Amino acid sequence: MNERMVILPLTAGETGTTLGDLYQYITVPMSLTIVAVVASPNVDDAGLTIDINDDGTVAIAAVVCDTKATPGTWLSTHVGGANAPVRVAADSVLSLDANAAAANTMVTVHIWALVGETS
Questions:
Q1: What is the second-level CATH architecture of the domain 4-115?
Q2: Whole-angstrom distance, CA of residue 58 vs CA of residue 80
Q3: Alpha-carbon distance values, 101 to 18, 38, 54, 117 (Å)
Q4: What is the three-class DSSP state of 118?
């Protein structure tokens, strides 16, 4: 089977709210393997990290993204990083935690994943 790279873009936050646990959800229609995550806030927000959860369990923890001009990254060995890739089953619900976010912070998250893997 051929592998394909997909990007799942998420934007979380709005004026007058504070991001927190399980802030945003997305259901994945097919199994995939997360190989990279890049996250950036719209303003500097000291201490801000994000978690990506798979069916409510933290799969990728504490991606530091507290500086607008320096996006936080989580990279698997597939793309030259040190982390093990994260396999996500079809019909899983991915959710986003924003830890230590200030009010009115928005976060843009891009999840790079492989679909169509046979292993």
A1: Sandwich (2.60)
A2: 22
A3: 7, 17, 21, 35
A4: coil
Are 62 and 51 in contact, with CB atoms under 8 Å apart? yes
What amino acid occupies position 12?
A: A
Angle at 59 between CA 88 and CA 102, to 5 degrees: 125
Strand pairing class (93-99; 24-27): antiparallel
**Model pTM?**
0.89
Alpha-carbon distance of 105 to 100, in angstroms, equals: 10
- Can you give the residue ranges of every domain in the chain? 4-115
Which among 80, 84, 43 is positioned nearest to 65, based on CA atoms?
Answer: 43
**Is 109 strand, coil or helix?**
strand
Q: Are 13 and 107 in contact (CB under 8 A)?
A: yes
For 17-68, write each residue's pLDDT tens digit. Answer: 788 777 778 899 999 999 999 999 999 999 999 999 999 999 999 999 999 9
